[in-house]
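Holo prediction. Input below; ligand is adenosine monophosphate.
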Amino acid sequence: MSTFKAPKGTYDLLPPNSASYLAVREAIAAPLRNSGYGYIETPGFENVELFARGVGESTDIVTKEMYAFETKGGDRLALRPEGTASVLRAALEANLHKGGNLPVKLWYSGSYYRYERPQKGRYRHFSQVGAEAIGAEDPALDAELIILADQAYRSLGLRDFRILLNSLGDKTCRPVYRAALQEFLRGLELDEDTRRRIDINPLRVLDDKRESVQEQLIGAPMLRDYLCEECKAYHEQVRELLTAAGVAFEDDPKLVRGLDYYTRTTFEFVHDGLGSQSAVGGGGRYDGLSEMIGGPELPSVGWALGVDRTVLALEAEGITLDIPAATAVYAVPLGEEARRVLFGTVTELRRAGVATDFAYGGKGLKNAMKSANRSGARLALVAGERDLGEGVVQVKDLESGEQTPVAVDAVVEEVRRRLG
Ligand code: AMP
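Structure of the complex:
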């Protein structure tokens, strides 16, 4: 062990488990790539103001959890706590919305940082794959994103997840509801922090996990009773499209989520095997965000799915992904001449696309065969002086143990034949 450890709230992805993370990212990205979403990558840090304005000055993410710092040059930056604000910023900066081809559909994958109290499923560095559809107001787009996330989870074999759905209204109906809720909340017995929240972001109080708060919330005005006709009709269409696609969801009139920018459709994917950190992904419509960060009116919708929690969900359901062995062929040279010859064969196999590894470091036969077995390879190539004297390499089937001599210059072809 070195003197250093991974910082608190972080962990390293190491082989062989790291392969599941790659597979999860790939499984989430596949339906997006297949549905017109282009890949976008933005910096790991942004101007801190972008998140303050975009995510919301009053959110926990911005007030408590952001890694904000000043550079030596005096720039005020923050490690990105989420993806949407950056992606929208990048799309606006590059004028992607002006190509006359709305919505701009983008997907991303990367690291995010929040200074949270670490626990299982909640880290200070975590990984998300996300999607954003910028510049169109169409219930089919909201439905598309939910359907694609559902498809991604199902392709991984996940079954014990639920989709919670709500509408947060728009700039016409939400303020009316907000006022009604504030009036109701002001009549409750709440601590000072929560009272402050009533002024800044009353909807967030509905999300309070404490029993003592939840009890008092019985009888609180519900947003769904305040939705304007447009929002109601929009939400009904999203629901119908999901139902028609065979995607089950639960109406959750209390779902608000921790970011300020959401309007209308809001959803969360929760997994029932994860305990308290049950949200594996979430998203929604953010029709006002573009204007909040100085752009034009661009109604948009998106989601982010957490890779770490998706991996935990797989574990909770006892699912092992079918990940092909990293190595198909393992070469074991015995002696200098064999090393030279087999290294050449290994290079040739790799160039032919066969996953091949080599016993480095002059290991003895026994150790080298152990490594061959551990690598998961199906075939070992073994050659000593006597084999080379006869112009052959032993091709050993590591499952059956059966071994056959094959002429040196026919090895690549024979291996490819055997691996099919
Ligand atoms: P949010 O942006 O908070 O809606 O997060 C979207 C998804 O990212 C969540 O559903 C989680 O799967 C994941 N996520 C958010 N915060 C964390 C964290 N601190 N540690 C691990 N995963 C997280």
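Residues 111 and 127 are 5 Å apart (CA to CA). That is the main takeaway for now.
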